[in-house]
Amino acid sequence: MLTNLRIFAMNHQTIPSAHINNLCCYKIRASFKRLKPYVLLGRNYSSLPGLIGNDIKSLHSVINPPIAKIRNIGIMAHIDAGKTTTTERILYYSGYTRSLGDVDDGDTVTDFMAQERERGITIQSAAVTFDWKGYRVNLIDTPGHVDFTLEVERCLRVLDGAVAVFDASAGVEAQTLTVWRQADKHKIPRICFLNKMDKTGASFKYAVESIREKLKAKPLLLQLPIGEAKTFKGLVDVVTKEKLLWNSNSNDGKDFERKPLLEVSDPELLKETIEARNALIEQVADLDDEFADLVLGEFSENFDLLPAEKLQNAIRRVTLAQTAVPVLCGSALKNKGVQPLLDAVTMYLPSPEERNYEFLERISRLLLPFADQHIEISSLTAGNIALTVGLKHTATGDTLVSSKSSALAAARRAEREEEKQHRKNNEAERLLLAGVEIPEPVFFCTIEPPSVAKQPDLEHALKCLQREDPSLKVRLDPDSGQTILCGMGELHIEIIHDRIKREYGLETYLGPLQVAYRETILNSACATDTLDRTLGDQRHLVTVEVEARPIETSSLMPVIEYAESIHEDLLKVSQEAIENGIHSACLQGPLLGSPVQDVAITLHSLTVHPGTSTTMISACVSRCVQKALKKADKQVLEPLMNLEVTVARDYLSPVLGDLAQRRGNIQEIQTRQDNKVVIGFVPLAEIMGYSTALRTLTSGSATFALELSTYQAMNPQDQNTLLNRRSGLT
Ligand SMILES: Nc1nc2c(ncn2[C@@H]2O[C@H](COP(=O)(O)OP(=O)(O)OP(=O)(O)O)[C@@H](O)[C@H]2O)c(=O)[nH]1
C-alpha cells in the first residue's frame, strides 16, 4: 500500500530515510517549532534513465528547491469539468510529458487506474511533480464523482492551495459546492479556472455570477475572454493590459503571443480592459488596507499608472487571506489559457511556509510520485509531498510522528488538550491536523469469494482496500455469516468489485445492491431479562432492566443513562460491558436489522452474581435492549438524497414525470443557459440505476449529481411494502 505523505518538518536537516520501525500513531499529533528549510544545491538527477515511462521525461533535477518556490496544489471540481484534461496540458507545457494525453482516448498520466482509463473518470487522486519557471509544483488531480468525496478530502487536508476547475457553460455545479465546502473547512486558498470557454453555451459572465451567488465567494476577474464558444480565441490579462492570442496553426498551444493592448489596434478591448482593471483595483483595495493606502495615496488620480506588480502583490495577499478568489479562463481541450493558469498558481497560491503547519513526520522509505510511477529518494525537505511504502498498520487519516518518545509526548499533549477542550483552548485547535470526515455508506451488498478456501484472500483484499478508503465499510452478517460490503454509491461498489479482481486476482460475486436503511422508535418501552448459565463450575447470573425511548437530537450512537440506584462500584467493573451490549443491540434494529438511531437507553437496574463474566453481562444487556426496542412502536428511516439533474429544455417533461414516479420532491427548476436544472429530493431506494434510465429518457443529454441529504421516516404504506418484501411476502 502506498501512503501519501506530507512532510511538515522544517529544520536545518533534511528528513533522513533511516530504518525506523513503522510506527502507527493513530490520531496522535506532535507539534514542533517552525524552523528554516534546508536547501540542497547542485544535486542533479537529470540522468534517471528508465526510471520513468517512455512518454515521460525525467525531471531536470530532483533537487530540493527553496521552500518559497514550492507549490502544493490540488485540482478539484464537479465531474467532467475538465480537471484531468487541464492536468494533462499542465504536464505537457511544463515539459513533464512529451505528448498530450486525452481522457477520451484513455491515455492520460494521472488517470492511470484501468477503471479510470476505461470510464474516462478520475477515481483515485494522482500526484505528480513538475517544475514551472523555477517553481516546484506538486499537483494532485482529485476525483469529481460524489462517490469518491472522501478521496478528495484526504488530499485537501495536505494541500496548500487549489485550482477549482469549472465548466464555463455550467458554472457552479452540485459537486463543486461540496468540494468548495471541504476546501473552506481546510482553509485552502483557491484560484478558479473557467474551462471549456470554447464549448457551445460557454458564458464567462454566467459562470462568474454563479461563483458569486452559489459559492458566496468574491471573484477577482484577472482575465477576460476574447470571444466565447466557437469564437473563443484568446484572453486579456486585466492586470497587465495585454492580450494573449494562441497561434491557430499550432496544434499543441505551446506558441502564443502576449502583446500590450493599444488604442490604435484594439480601442474597444482596451476600454473594456481598463474598466475591468479599475473595478479590480477597487475591489482589492476594499479587501486589503495596505493596498488601499497605496491606491488612495499615490495613484488616486489615475489607476492606470499603478504598476502591475503592486496589484499582483495585493491580489496574492487577498487570495492567501481567502477573502477573494482570482478567476481565470480558457479551454484546456483547445490548448488555450493553461500557461497563464500555471503562472497564476506560482504567483498567487501560497508556499508551504505561508501555511501554519507545525508538525513533523518521519518515515522509512521515501518516493517521489509521478502518477503511477515513483523514484526513490534519500531525503526531502519540509513543504514537499512524497509517498512512503510498507506501513502495515496505518490507515487514511492517521498522522505519523518521528519516534516512540515523540508519539508518547504527543499523546500526553493531545490528552491534556482534550481535557482543556471544554475550556475552549484555541491553541489546541492550532496543534491538531484536521482529521478526515468519513461519510456514512448508503448502499450495501453481500460479497462472496469464488470458493470457501478463498475467504481469507478476500478478507485480506478488503482489509487493504479499507485502509486506503475508509468510506468503504465491511461487516459480517451475524445471521447468515456473509460478508457485507457497504459503500457510498453504485459506482463505488462496482469499482471495489473490479479492483478486487484486477489487483488481487479474485473473482467475487456480489449480491443485489441494497439501500442502507435505519430504524428508530416512536415511544418508550421497558424490558427485563435474566441470563442464568453455568459454564464448568462457574455460574453466570445477570438480571437487567432497561428502558428505550426516542430522543429529538439526530444521533446514530445511543445516548446511555444510568438510574441513580445503580451502584458506582458495580459500574466501575461492568460499565464497559454494559455499553458494549447496548451498542451491539442498537446496531441491529428489530424491523430490518438496520442500525437504530435517535434513541436513549436507560439502565434501571442491574444485579450480577459474583464471578459472572463481563461477556455474559454484555450478552444479557444486549438481549434486554433488543426486547425493549421490539416492544416500542417502530419506524424505518430511509436515506433521502439531494438530486440535481441538468437537462436540455426539450427533455424536461419526461424527466419530471419520471421523478414523480420515483417519489421525487422537486424544490426548484433553474434555467442554466439552454438547459434546465431540476433540484429536489428523492429517496435513494427509488434512484438505483438512474444513470441508465436518464440516459434513455434524454438520449444521453442529461447529467445528474446525488448527495445524501438526511434519513427520513418512510410513510406507513411504503414501509409495509418494504417489510413485506424483506420477509418474502411480496
Ligand atoms: N469543449 C471542451 N471539452 C473539454 C474541455 N476540457 C475537457 N473537455 C472534455 O470534457 C470531458 C471531461 O474531461 P475530464 O478532463 O475527464 O474531466 P474531469 O473533470 O477530470 O472528470 P472526472 O475526473 O471524471 O471528474 C472530456 O470529454 C474532455 O474531452 C474544454 O476545454 N473544452
UniProtKB/TrEMBL annotation:
Keywords, A to Z, come to: GTP-binding, Mitochondrion, Nucleotide-binding, Protein biosynthesis
Q: Where in the cell is it found?
A: Mitochondrion
Does the record's keyword annotation contain Disulfide bond? no
Q: Which GO terms describe its biological process?
A: mitochondrial translation; ribosome disassembly
> Which reactions appear under catalytic activity for this entry?
GTP + H2O = GDP + phosphate + H(+)
Q: What does this protein do?
A: Mitochondrial GTPase that mediates the disassembly of ribosomes from messenger RNA at the termination of mitochondrial protein biosynthesis. Acts in collaboration with MRRF. GTP hydrolysis follows the ribosome disassembly and probably occurs on the ribosome large subunit. Not involved in the GTP-dependent ribosomal translocation step during translation elongation.
Its family remark reads: Belongs to the TRAFAC class translation factor GTPase superfamily. Classic translation factor GTPase family. EF-G/EF-2 subfamily.
Q: What is this protein called?
A: Ribosome-releasing factor 2, mitochondrial
Species for this entry: Callithrix jacchus
Gene that this polypeptide is encoded by: GFM2
